[in-house]
């Protein structure tokens, strides 16, 4: 659970003194840099207000103010404990006793999406925002602006799944992501005691197809190594793809690689130690000599700038796409294929799967085992081809003998 930055500041607006000579005591609440003002319901004269201490000189009113501030802190901690997230709007609503964010599905989902905007990798935020948009589209299709958690039943979940598949034509894996998002919101409501149980918990997910791990072969990798590009942008893409194939870094990890992430041990061996931008899991990978050579061509000293001068994701993916076509490797080559290539290459070199998991920053070794399945499938396919070839030879020999 990520702790928010939080502060409260009582003050008065000396420019708005009422007819009786008093001014309202307000409270500025700030959560993660965003502020909102709320009235404390207490007034005092400007002469009674101690701006330096944020107190009233009148003992009774100062006691009321202290109680109000304590309530703000208590509500903040309660919301944070219940939700794992909090915004200044949520806190203000609770203090005004108009907390609709906790009772309505879309409103609550929006607050979580906003938290992802500031607390997680951008790609993760974009995924959550998309799933929230789909949920909103479905609720609006029911002629509702929002729906209370207590009005959601199993039928709602089944209809949402049908909406995604029939009306939007979404594939099974996409439908599952959207259902996961809805389930997460429902379980949050259970945690907050808004509902007693998740009514859509038993709704089945769509059967997922076996994952396609796009990677390039060792021969294609060697071809890429030996074929520099004349175009500067495509050459940067080639070098970064090779670097990622030897280090397991994703696009965002390469883009946010800084000189301080690169260290050297007592034997002079360089390595990268960094947290994955997507998951926050630390990975450790020794640098291959080719990866070291690529690093030497870029920034390894100025820690105010990243190592590689990468542009936006769409640009580097277009450049990698171009690279794949130029080299005749694939007309659909994407940057993430480099990370999959690393996993397969390491397994083919008999590196222990536990070591590969650590180098790739996998929190669970089952994620790494996917690469083992890819390797095993290739072996199986190669064996099938060998058997088929021998069978063709056998039949050909039989025909020859028959003549």
Explain what this protein looks like in three dimensions.
The protein is mainly alpha-helical and 403 residues long. It has 3 domains: 6-95, no CATH class; 105-191, DNA polymerase, domain 1 (Orthogonal Bundle); 218-378, hpI Integrase, Chain A (Orthogonal Bundle), CATH 1.10.443. It has 14 helices and 8 strands. It has helices at 59-83, 88-95, 105-119, 122-141, 154-167, 172-191, 218-225, 232-247, 251-255, 289-295, 313-326, 337-348, 353-360, 365-402; strands at residues 6-12, 23-31, 34-44, 49-50, 55-56, 262-264, 270-275, 282-286. The strands form 3 sheets. The chain has a 3-stranded antiparallel beta sheet. A 3-stranded antiparallel beta sheet has the order 6-7-8. Strands 4-5 form a two-stranded antiparallel sheet. α8 (232-247) packs antiparallel against α10 (289-295), α8 packs across α11 (313-326) and α12 (337-348) crosses α14 (365-402). The relative contact order is 0.06.
Keywords:
11% strand, hpI Integrase, Chain A, 403 residues, mainly alpha, 3-stranded antiparallel β-sheet, 3 domains, DNA polymerase, domain 1, extended, 8 strands
